[in-house]
Design a protein that fits this description.
By secondary structure, the chain is α/β, with parallel strands linked by helices. 50% of the residues lie in helices and 12% in strands. Among the domains are: 4-100, Resolvase, N-terminal catalytic domain (Rossmann fold, 3-Layer(aba) Sandwich), CATH 3.40.50.1390; 147-181. It has helices at 18-26, 45-53, 65-68, 72-84, 101-134, 147-158, 164-171, 175-181; strands at 4-10, 31-36, 59-62, 88-91, 96-97. A 5-stranded mixed β-sheet has the order 2-1-3-4-5, sandwiched between helices. Helix 1 (18-26) links the parallel strand 1 and strand 2.
Length: 191
């Protein structure tokens, strides 16, 4: 048996969720989960509980889309997840309802736009990386252990006068980083 479950969110403790709670009760929500947190956060305690509580054929109801999240990508992902689990979604203010044919169509369009946006971002990123490589730039972090530091580390270690900790300190790297560049068979991890 399906049920309507509400979700309300306020950003600060100074705000009052009464408007949202009244609208959700009027819409027939049997239970309402309420968070006091920023919509920019992906993880919210009550939202997490709500998502665990929902069962197939249930309908998640919000007063307004921005109560569920401000990030379009997060919203689309969340609604796609609900859809895959057989859970409907309604937004009272915008009239968005995935339990109706027109709501499913609208969501499909929004999802397609979201996928198009992700594809454009990937394409731009790839083009930017290729252009940087063509100009001789490498991506990623700068290497901590330059060839000169590697040679110095080997000399200091082979002299037997310095511990791994002191060598790492002199070179400005962690012991773990230093161990990666020294031959593990020749290094006793005691230094």
């Amino acid at each position: 048996m399906s049920s309507q479950v509400g979700y309300a969110r306020i950003s600060t403790s100074d705000q009052d969720p009464a408007l949202q709670l009244d609208a959700l009760a009027k819409a027939g929500c049997e239970r309402v989960f309420t968070d006091r947190a920023s919509g920019a956060l992906d993880r919210r305690p009550e939202l997490d509980q709500l998502l665990n509580y929902l069962r197939p054929d249930d309908v998640l109801v919000v007063w307004k889309l921005d109560r569920l999240g401000r990030n379009l990508r997060h919203l689309i992902g969340l609604i796609e997840d609900l859809n895959e689990r057989g859970i409907g979604f309604r937004s009272l203010t915008e009239g968005f309802d995935t339990t109706t044919p027109s709501g499913k169509l609208l969501f499909s369009l929004i999802g397609a736009i979201g996928e198009f946006e992700r594809s454009l971002i990937r394409e731009r990123t790839r083009a930017g990386l290729e252009a940087a490589r063509a100009r001789g730039r490498k991506g990623g972090r700068p290497q901590l252990m330059t060839e000169e530091k590697q040679r110095l580390a080997r000399q200091l270690y082979d002299s037997g006068e310095h511990s791994v900790s002191s060598i790492a300190s002199v070179l400005g790297v962690s012991r773990r980083t230093l161990y990666r560049y020294l031959d593990p068979l020749q290094v006793k991890k005691a230094g």
